[in-house]
Each structure stands twice: as C-alpha cells, then as structure tokens.
Specification:
With 208 residues, the chain is α/β, with parallel strands linked by helices.
Length: 208
C-alpha cells in the first residue's frame, strides 16, 4: 500500500438521493474531531471560492471560521493542516494531500472526479458506513498499477513511459475488479497532479 502520511476519510458520491448538506456535515464532523485529536488549525480546499459562499451551510460556516484556499486562487501557508476537501478535482486533491501531510484529510467526492481508487489505496474510512473502503483489487492488479505509477514519473507525457503504460492498461482494463476510476484514483493517491491524471485519462480512453 501507499505510504500515506495522513489519516483519511471520505463521503463517496454514490447516492443521487443524498444531499450535499448531509455529505458535508459528515465530513466536517470527522475532520473537526481529527483536528482536536491531532492538533492544528483546519483548512478548507475547494475548486473555487464560490463554494465558500454558496455551498452547504456547514461549508459556509467552515469557510467563515477557518482558513480556506483553492488550487487556482490564494494559497495558505504550507504547514501541517487537517484538511477538508469539498468536491475536489484531481488538482485540488494534489493540493489537499500536500497540506494534510502528517495530519488528516476528509473528502466529499464529486462524480466528476471519482476517487474510489484513492480511497482504496489510502484505506480511507467511508463515512457513510463507518468502515474502511473495500479494496477490490488483486495483488497482481496492484503490482500492475504500481508499474503504471512508475512509468508516469514524467506525467505520462509522450514517450516510453506513456507507451508502456498504455500496454499495461490495455490488459488491466479487461480484468474484473478494476476500472478507469480505480486506476486514476490510485494515481491520485500516489501523488500525481491534475495535469498528469488528465494525460493518463486520455491514454485510458484510447485503449478501452
């Protein structure tokens, strides 16, 4: 497993009947509990500043009470933070994980940026069930994912690494227990940024 340096939890976006308020309240409650236990001032990471003012009430209160930042706007001072990532894209996840180092990270997922592979890899608690996210990958599939990670050391730009990754992906995506969401989420957990994940996604689309 990835040597994560933060305690992780998430609310998956897997129920169209679940309100954003309910999801956010679960994540905030867990994150504040972690902040009290671990120490450190909480930090909110969102795709845009709009969520600070027009999101669920609990997110607005969080943004009013604690520091907030985005990957596109003003940044927070880099130090240990218990981080709440609300509907992050993959670039936001890279930022949130960097702030959460040696602390805690709670995520409210949006289906526009699936994070099931991240949750499996970091053994994130599913806040809807209270259990660690089930890992459907076989040991061999995990080894293949790690090979793709290694070949992505240049962000899967054109060349040998991208070509070798495409070859592995072609076979991997035909197996049970794994899909594109698991693959991209795994790479998020392994520290690849949003631009790298976008390139990998194009490779996946090409070989599927």
């Amino acid at each position: 497993m990835t040597m994560v340096t933060y305690t992780a939890a998430w609310v998956p976006d897997d129920d169209p009947e679940r309100s954003w308020d309910e999801a956010a309240e679960l994540a905030v409650a867990w994150l504040l509990k972690q902040a009290r236990f671990l120490g450190g001032q909480p930090l909110l990471v969102t795709p845009t500043q709009q969520q600070w003012h027009s999101g669920p009430d609990v997110i607005r209160r969080f943004a009013d009470t604690y520091e907030a930042t985005t990957s596109r706007g003003r940044g927070a001072q880099f130090r240990q933070w218990p981080v709440l990532a609300y509907v992050p894209d993959y670039g936001d996840m890279d930022l949130a994980a960097s702030y959460a180092r040696n602390s805690a990270l709670a995520v409210v997922e949006s289906r526009t940026a699936p994070l099931i592979g991240w949750a499996m890899e970091v053994q994130a608690m599913d806040l809807m069930t209270g259990a660690v996210t089930a890992d459907t990958r076989s040991p061999e599939q995990h080894r293949e994912l790690e090979r793709i990670h290694d070949y992505g050391n240049n962000g899967w730009t054109r060349g040998f690494g991208a070509d070798r990754s495409a070859s592995i992906l072609s076979g991997l995506l035909r197996q049970d227990g794994i899909d594109a969401d698991i693959i991209t989420g795994h790479m998020v957990a392994r520290g690849h940024d949003g631009r790298a994940i976008a390139r990998l996604t194009k490779i996946i689309e090409r070989v599927q």
